[in-house]
Write a structure and sequence with these properties.
Elements: E1 7-16, E2 19-29, E3 34-39, H1 45-52, E4 60-65, E5 68-69, H2 75-80, E6 83-86, H3 98-102, H4 113-118, H5 123-136, H6 154-167, E7 172-176, H7 184-199, E8 204-207, H8 211-217, E9 220-225, E10 228-233, H9 240-248
Parallel strand pairs: 3-8, 3-9, 6-7, 7-8
Antiparallel strand pairs: 1-2, 1-4, 4-5, 9-10
Bound molecules: adenosine-5'-triphosphate.
Length: 259
């Protein structure tokens, strides 16, 4: 594993009136790792992720992507730089097909004069590409690429959302509670998909309250408390109850791993 973080933050601060959502928060995502971010309700996890993805502009602090200081002005700005976020609720557009969902916001127009004048979409290309992306990710239990997403199971939908995030030259994929609404089997598929993406060299940030899932896939666990990172622990060296105790303040972060 390279020692340079791909995405890094130092001293992020964000206040909402009197509420300090981020209080000198640090963050490091290494290439080719699954980094879990855990914390109690209101600890500031969402605000941290939003700051890293242009959805919230921090009051101050520094963000670096591949070592370069960066100031995202919007989520589109972050997306254009290869940072893709899958939110639990906004994952997909139910009425659109799988292929259309994969290309949402990145539709491919036909190259010929018809495409130029009438802005006609190149559906053949989009369907071929969608099939290829889904099969690369082992998601081809989905039979028909033109099937509306609302007819898929929860796990398949989440699969499409994750495939979309991973498909287009992304450098970082952030998953916000990707298994929260899923059953056991479907969760398993999404966890397997995460491991497959990691094996393909894509670093992943997993925000989750589900400790068994976190401990199953994470290489490191960032623990957030009261607006800041208080520790980064190795799940092989700590139990789930340690993680929860550190997260809630019942246990001091281990000295070697305190942030
Ligand atoms: N837009 C906002 N306006 C006012 N306060 C906010 C806003 N967003 C977040 N906060 C406050 O900032 C603090 C951190 O919230 P945040 O949503 O980042 O926590 P979280 O760790 O993601 O919590 P959860 O696990 O419950 O989603 C909370 O006290 C929250 O009420």
């Amino acid at each position: 594993m390279s020692t340079e973080p791909i995405l890094q933050a130092r001293g992020l601060n964000k206040r909402y009136g009197r509420v300090v959502a981020l209080d000198n928060a640090d963050f490091d995502l290494m290439p080719n790792e699954i980094l879990a971010v855990i914390g109690d309700n209101g600890a500031g996890k969402s605000t941290l992720i939003k700051a890293l993805t242009g959805a919230v502009i921090p009051d101050f602090g520094e963000i670096r992507l591949n070592g370069q200081p960066i100031a995202f002005k919007s989520p589109i700005d972050a997306r254009n730089r290869g940072i893709e976020t899958v939110y639990q609720n906004l994952a997909v557009s139910p009425a659109l097909s799988i292929a259309d969902n994969l290309f949402l916001g990145r539709e491919k127009r036909r190259d010929d004069w018809i495409g130029k004048i009438f802005r006609t979409l190149d559906r053949g290309y989009m369907q071929r590409e969608a099939r290829q992306k889904l099969s690369e990710l082992g998601l081809l239990t989905i039979q028909n690429i033109n099937q509306p997403v609302e007819t898929l199971s929860g796990g398949q939908r989440q699969g499409v959302a994750v495939a979309r995030a991973a498909a287009f030259g992304s450098r970082v994929v952030i998953l916000d509670e990707p298994t929260a609404a899923l059953g056991v089997k479907e969760s398993r598929k999404v966890l397997e998909l995460m491991l497959r993406l990691k094996a393909r060299g894509l670093p992943i940030v997993l925000i989750s309250h589900n400790m068994p899932h976190v401990f199953e896939v994470a290489d490191r666990i960032h623990i957030h408390r009261l607006g800041k990172r208080i520790a980064v622990i190795d799940p092989k060296k700590h139990s789930m109850s340690d993680a929860v105790a550190i997260m809630t303040g019942a246990m001091a972060p281990p000295a070697a791993e305190a942030a």
